[in-house]
Task: structure prediction
Amino acid sequence: MKKSIIFVLISLLSLTLLSAGFAVKYYIKTQKLQNKIVSLEATISDMSSKNDTLKKDSEILDTRYENLKSKKSAIEIIAAQEQECLKKENYTTAGMNHCVHISLDRLEKEIEKNITLLKSVMTFEQYELLQKSQEAWEDYKKAEMTLNRETVGNNSGTIYTNILAGHQFSIVEKRAKDLSILYSELAGE
Result:
């Protein structure tokens, strides 16, 4: 009987120790899960904060976009003025050339204006690069015009004078747009 009592006691002690071991393992797993939950809650809170920041940034960008859409750029105004001029000139060859050359003068002034504006938002080194870029662009513009005069300009017919003026307009308009966009980006507009 003593053996069976000892066996029962040993069995009970084994079960107690086994239960205690499971309890410790369960406690450790519970603690790990609680730590993961706390970590996830912190991550969710951080993501929520970042989401709020992104929403605010998005609202700011939406407002800027709406402001930009409502404002006409100087280049758009020049294009609208050119269309009015063309209507007045009744779309004659000479009239179209006249209107394009007026627009070219306006675009050149827009380029000069943007270079001046860029100087106010650039470092000295950046402005020097801009000046070099502008000189290279002037060389490019002259070379393109020479090429166009020697190729397209050699064709017979007055329409080719319009085509030449259109090529020149495209070159100058692109530079004006590029400088305007650069200024807007650097000035934060």
